[in-house]
Amino acid sequence: MTKALITVENLKTYFPIRAGVFRRAVGHVKAVDDVSFSIAKGRTLSIVGESGSGKSTVGRSILRLVPKTSGNVKFHDVDVYRLSKRELRKLRPKIQMVFQDPYSSLNPRMKVGAAIGEALIDHGLADPKEVRERVEAVLVQTGLEPYHFDRYPHEFSGGQRQRIVIARALALNPEFIVLDEPVSALDVSIQAQILNLLADLREMHGLTYLFISHDLSVVEFISDEVAVMYLGTIVEHASRDELFAHPLHPYTKALLSAVPIPDPTLKRERIVLKGDIPSPADPPRGCRFHTRCPFAEDRCREAVPELRDVGGGHRVACHLV
Amino acid sequence: MFQYIIRRLMESVPTIIGASIVIFLAFSLAPGDVITANYTGGMNLTEERKAELRELYGLNKPLPERYGLWMGHVLQGDFGQSYLYNKPVTDVIKTFVWNSFLLSATVLVLQWMLALVIGVFSAVRQYSLFDSLVTVLVFVAMSLPSFFLGLLLLKLFAVDYRIFPLGGMTSTGVDYQGLQHILDVAYHMALPVLTLTLLSIGGTTRYFRMTMLEVVRQDYIRTARAKGLKERVVIFKHALRNALLPLITLFALELPGLFAGAIITERIFNWPGIGRVTLDGLYQRDYPLMMGFTLIIAFLTILANILADVLYGVADPRVRHR
């Protein structure tokens, strides 16, 4: 494996639950509980999982937008959490983020050009005089028109807005972009356009992505590697082809069996999970998945399965594998 | 935009007429009039004399006719004669309204500036000690009635410690000019301004805190942070600007209050403002004065509504008036 661009080691992010008169912490929501992975330069890792699995929190913790509880996040060889506020600000352009909802992630009172160009000026990456040129160039790259510079966000459709958001991230010449469900809020036809755009940009600029999604068909298109998260932990992590061809964890199997296949004659075995994801404030003992696992045994209720390599970099956390 | 303003002004004509009818009826149908108010205690007026006086003031005509006469004069800028001051109503208002304006405008500026600073700061540090403290203090200040707070400050600062004067607008017996006059007025203003600011700051602070909290949760604020902008820029440029939008309406609707005076506070501090005049006018059944003044405030309120909508269109690019 080539050298890792981003390394996450034993990352934990807990949110305190405060209650009572003095708002003391009475417990913690373990949004991310001991997650490790690394992404090599130019590659795309997808994190999939259902709502509440902590996948967005992983992305935000990497950018230090929410404080971690313990663990390490390294960009190149720099520990992101060791940086002072000023140093972190200097690093920000290199690590960018795209949020899910293109309607709320653009400031309604700022013109598109200003929103994209603002950070360029702030970080001294462009002269105030050449900002317009730079921004227009990046607008064109993301499939927009130069005259969109002077428009307000409300004048655009959802797909166009997401292009603006991507242009905004791209303008800073980042090496690494966290894409937090970037296409979930869009129509399927628009999703395809945005995914193609992201793939093209990755090739053009040698970008590295962390792609957060709950949509496996999207993930299959964009990723090199896939990590499946459940209740704050990674339960399976493998290369895309390996994971889609040979899923090992029962949860992954269940997720894959739920992906719609556009062929009504095809019969297949469905694994239907019952119940909801348990509360991350009070996760089940033993294997976190045992409450919903169709194959759970006694040892699953007692011991926590370790995430171990079963060969060829395919990591899985299950007693039964 | 220009067409929009013209249209809104035209639309407000029926509203003004409706308001004038309500105002006229409220005062005309209220029991008692200037004659019963002035000539009851001790003075024994015969019924005939009272009827004569009513005839003189035109109070015996049927209501629609009286309304027609009143409105006819109002449209020519003549609000009638104040019984109490024996002067045209417009003169009385002109004499006192600017004293009230001085007081209210000072309060408005202080109130909004302090509320902005406190509200934004407590929103940025939500659940901190400062935030909790502000929440409690603001609630206390809001809950105190003006007569209580006013009298308390008066007792403390004017009676016990004699730091500030007991009341009035200028020192008696001296005739200051220029800068000295300004300082003298400011000195007399201190306590009423403090009272009114304390009373009004609570609600505004809470508005600022609430709208800020709503905005800082938005993704574009998170984006601004992820862009690596300075926290100051994130809060003041991205968050505050958007948080101010709903407050524009609130601010514009407070503007007519600048001319309305503070009835109770002006009474307590003996401030020669329009609020005190209103109260005297009410006691003396000086209906021409009351009706004229209320109508002017109603008119200003309607204007402020239009102003709020126009300002909103200027500030929010998503709103365009045609």
Q: Your description of this structure?
A:
The complex is a heterodimer of chains A (321) and B (322). Chain A has 321 residues and is an alpha/beta fold. Chain A has helices at residues 55-62, 85-91, 112-122, 131-141, 158-171, 188-205, 216-222, 240-245, 250-257, 298-302; strands spanning 4-19, 24-40, 44-48, 70-75, 78-79, 95-98, 176-180, 208-213, 225-230, 233-239, 308-309, 315-316. In chain A, helix 3 (112-122) packs parallel to helix 5, helix 4 (131-141) packs across helix 5 and helix 5 runs parallel beside helix 6 (188-205). Chain A is globular, with a radius of gyration of 21 Å. Chain B has 322 residues and is mainly alpha-helical. Chain B has a domain at 91-254: MetI-like (MetI-like fold), CATH 1.10.3720.10. Chain B has helices spanning 2-29, 34-38, 47-57, 63-75, 89-124, 129-143, 146-160, 178-216, 219-226, 231-243, 245-254, 257-260, 263-268, 274-283, 287-315. The N and C termini of chain B lie close together (6 Å).
Report the helical percentage of chain B. over 70%
CATH topology of the domain at 91-254 in chain B: MetI-like fold
Number of strands of chain B: 0
Specify the oligomeric state.
heterodimer
